[in-house]
What we know:
By secondary structure, this protein is of the alpha/beta class. It has helices spanning 62-68, 78-88, 105-111, 124-136, 167-176, 190-200; strands at 7-11, 16-20, 25-28, 31-34, 46-48, 54-58, 95-99, 116-121, 142-146, 156-161, 177-187, 206-213, 217-219, 224-226, 232-240. A seven-stranded mixed sheet has the order 9-8-7-10-11-15-12, with helices on both faces. Strands 2-1-6-5 form a four-stranded antiparallel sheet, with no helix packed on it. The protein starts with 6 loop residues before the first strand and ends with a strand.
Amino acid sequence: MIEDGDRIILRTSERLFFVQAGKSTFSTDLGMINLAEAVGKESGDQISTHLGTVFTILIPRPTDFFAHGKRSGAPMLPKDIGMVIASTGMNHRDNVLDAGCGSGIAAIYFGSVAQSVTSYEIRDNFAAICRGNVQEAGLENVNVICGDVLDAEGTFDVVHLDLHITPEHVTHAYNLLVPGGYLATYTPFLEQTFIVLDTAEPLFGEVTCHELMDRELSRSKRGTRPSTRVAHSGYITVCRK
């Protein structure tokens, strides 16, 4: 059931709005929407503007926070986050350490899968944005800490790093992992990737690196072919202790 302050999606066949249910109105070219009417409803219920335009209410998923959530910079793409989840076997029993959380998009995806997520962000303004997005996603198992991940303590099943990585980050991650646990790093450049590989290979039993590529299909009256836009996004290095 939708509560006051919850994020919701309002969708017609042609329009989509990412709003908050509650005691306010939302103005569109299709009419005014009384957002208080969304409180108490369920996903799939409908709400109408004062002009009679009908919107379907949807509960946001992590993909919606990637598309519409407040950003502090460029977040990891969903396909790259999915590679981390798949390559580490992240599941409902795992305690995950996420560092360099930025807007918190990866943390929201991880929190929808894992038992718990501890997310570090060293910049206080980014941490505030991350904390806000996580709260709006309704995830109580994600804890956002404004601080240096090198100060992190405890044990984790998966450590994910999306920041300017140094050898100290890789070594610290190794010490925090349980036996059999995974470190996954996202690096946009080969130079950073080499730092991860050179530090990880003497420590971890398994080290693999993947370039992340993705191309959409482009369809027109002339025919179908892969999109010509840039397909590369970065590198994921996966290390098992």
